[in-house]
Specification:
By secondary structure, the protein is α/β, with parallel strands linked by helices. It contains five helices and seven strands, in the order H-E-H-E-H-E-H-E-H-E-E-E. It has a seven-stranded mixed β-sheet. Helix 2 runs parallel beside helix 3. The radius of gyration is 17 Å and the shape is globular. It starts with 26 loop residues before the first helix and ends in a 14-residue tail after the last strand.
Length: 201
């Protein structure tokens, strides 16, 4: 049974999505991931976005560890209902609504997100059948919504290639755990394509 590892709701069991609809992050990988994020000091007070949320495990773990707000995005009805149950658990412990559940396709959610919206920490754990061009398109939609100093974590099969990072996003680390590989990215410097741009005199 998966659980919240640490924080205000640490030790609490999480509801899992029934059947094989999702591919949950193992507790071993989740523990290693959050140990690294703690070292980066990006969780406390963060605005967190969990795309392809599944059960919402990564998002609610962030909430338990002190994130300010968490948005879970999941399209499947059964998985979305599980997200809500896990969100309710953490919100009850927090005494306020920290975690919100958005039943939506990831692309649609990002398309209708206000231009001013910025996230400090973003998780993407897409289903393995999602191909590389589709993942690249989602990352391109996400890039404008990263806060300065933000971190993006992409979880993929260790057999898949490195994601095609868009302009405005750069990979800075990666780590393999058996069949799982985590890619870490941050906002990059977009090329200056303005007219008349040139070297300083």
């Amino acid at each position: 049974m998966s659980r919240i590892i640490s924080g205000a709701a640490g030790g609490s069991p999480l509801v899992s999505v029934p059947g094989t609809l999702t591919r949950p992050t193992t507790d071993r990988v989740k523990e290693a991931l959050f140990s690294r994020l703690d070292a980066f000091d990006v969780i406390s007070g963060a605005r967190v976005l969990d795309l392809y949320a599944g059960s919402g495990s990564l998002g609610v773990e962030s909430a338990s560890r002190g994130a300010a707000t968490v948005d879970l995005v999941e399209f499947d009805a059964k998985a979305s209902a599980v997200c809500q149950r896990n969100a309710d658990l953490v919100n009850t412990v927090a005494g306020r609504k920290v975690v919100s559940v958005n039943r939506s396709k990831v692309e649609s959610f990002l398309d209708r997100t206000a231009d001013a919206a910025r996230w400090d920490l973003v998780f993407l754990d897409p289903p393995y059948p999602l191909d590389e061009p589709a993942l690249a398109a989602v990352l391109a939609k996400l890039a404008p919504h990263l806060a300065a100093g933000g971190v993006v974590v992409v979880e993929r099969s260790s057999r898949t290639p490195e994601p095609d990072w868009p302009a405005g996003m750069e990979r800075f680390a990666e780590k393999k755990y058996g069949e799982t590989r985590l890619w870490y990215a941050e906002p990059g410097i977009e090329p200056d394509t303005g007219a008349g741009a040139g070297p300083e005199a």
